[in-house]
Give the backbone structure.
Amino acid sequence: MIQAAETLAESVGVSAACRALGVPRSTLYRARQHQDEPAPRPTPPRALSAEEKATVRDTLNSERFWDCTPREVYATLLDKDGIYYCHWRTMYRILEAHDEVHERRNQRRHPDSPKPELRATGPNQLWSWDVTKLRGPHGIFYYLYTIIDVFSRYGVGWMIADRETAELAKVLIAKTCAKQGITPDELIIHADRGSAMRSKTVAQLYIALGIAKSHSRPRTPTDNPYSEAQYKTMKYRPDYPEVFAGIDHARRWARGFFDWYHNEHHHTGLALMTPAAVHYGQSEEVWQQRQQILEAAYAAHSERFVQGKPRLPKLPEEVWINKPEGEHQPDGLSVPAASQEEPGAQAASRGQSEATLETGEHLAILGQPLEQLDSVIIFPKLERELSQSY
């Protein structure tokens, strides 16, 4: 802007040029003044030499002093070694010049956890599961296990128990896979890093069923957004009880909630389709019906549609947990990204069923020997693996 003002001033004068361009004249005059580069600050004769600074730094980072503050090093050298290098403030300045005013020990560190990037293009390719607490009477809690399909947001399996254990999670996952007809190498199951989620019991079940597992990064709740969002929807329902009278009350309420959520809740991320319609392949029929109604309304009163013939948004073609940066985001997609490993092909539409297991049923199953457990879970592939001792 200064250069433009100088050029314009040659023809119309400084004042007119500055007014036209909105540049203060004082700024223009100041820019014309020659400003010399500031002279480098001279090194004081009393300053430490480069060799002395290197000695101080080596002393501070030595094994003897790498867990001590410069003040402690300063006092120890005076008292025990009879050595004075410099003041402790100077020690801090030497460390700061090398970005070492922090933990200087060579410590073992946890490796960085990879960012999960998971993609689903249809139902039963990517599931997410989590456990939340429901407040009961007298300060006790019940535990709601929920498995949702990330693409359709449908709760494929849920259960309420009085405790959180890997064994209960294993039975719920196995029963849900059986009811949804999951085949090997078709499904990824994502969860956070809770003890049940990372348990050896659940991991062995994944191996037996040919399921790929994925976990959120530590202290990163946004890596499991779909389960967290569903729990928020649940707990913000107007009829959500502040305290459940008992576990039977909690199960009755949850049964009603999931019926509403699956069949009546028009999900914003699903182009206002219900999770059940998307999960069981009915979304296209619903879309066509809606579109016909809008077209009839347009034919009757086209003047009310100022942007022309109405067109409904389409269902997202893909859904991500942590979508990689730089990839195109389709219209209507409302949440994040998934794995380098491609999920299996879309499973065929199956009869509507969900795994809802009572705690007593779980305990009865868990009390049986493994041979009986196989028949309850209905997994022919597991008959050999689950009868082995891990």
The CA atoms of residues 361 and 367 lie 10 Å apart.
